[in-house]
Design brief:
By secondary structure, the chain is of the alpha/beta class. It has a single domain, classed as Cytidine Deaminase, domain 2. The chain is built from 3 helices and 8 strands, in the order E-H-E-E-H-E-H-E-E-E-E. The strands form 2 sheets. The chain has a 6-stranded mixed sheet. A two-stranded parallel sheet has the order 1-8. Strand 4, helix 3 and strand 5 form a beta-alpha-beta unit.
């Protein structure tokens, strides 16, 4: 995969919040939204995976709508969808491509490698195409 010129900047606190969420929801895939501005995280919104599956996710609709409204109320945008792959796959799965809900948005995929959680970002442009996007941890504080 070719790296995209886009970068996603996530504060250390937000990184830790997402990592805590993906750990807490094992063995299911965790999911949620990253809200912010200028490709910088301002809010992490964990959302219930209504599939309760270790290989697929679907966000609970009311929680997802509430997150969209929060972004709108703060004049921000949905920067990325995050979810975990508890089985360790570090890139978009066949299910991720097949069930792509937001083409053109970054999907941050958390996976576990050698007992350590990490994440990688992908700009999911279509149901067959994804460009890797660097996820940069910053020292910014949460709002």
């Amino acid at each position: 995969m070719t790296l995209s010129p886009i970068r996603l900047f996530i504060s250390r606190a937000h990184w830790e919040q997402m990592e805590g969420d993906v750990r807490a929801r094992l063995p299911e895939e965790a999911c949620g939204l990253i809200i912010g501005e200028s490709n910088r995280s301002r809010f992490i919104i964990p959302i219930t995976n209504i599939f309760h599956s270790s290989s697929r996710f679907r966000m609970e609709p009311k929680e997802q709508l509430d997150a969209f409204l929060l972004a709108e109320d703060h004049g921000m945008e949905i920067l990325a969808v995050y979810h975990s792959h508890p089985t360790g796959m570090t890139k978009p799965s066949a299910a991720d491509f097949m069930e792509l809900t937001f083409p053109g948005i970054i999907y941050v995929i958390w996976s576990i490698e050698a007992s350590q959680w990490n994440c990688r970002g992908y700009l999911m442009k279509s149901q067959v195409d994804a460009l890797e996007v660097p996820v940069v941890i910053t020292q910014e504080k949460k709002l």
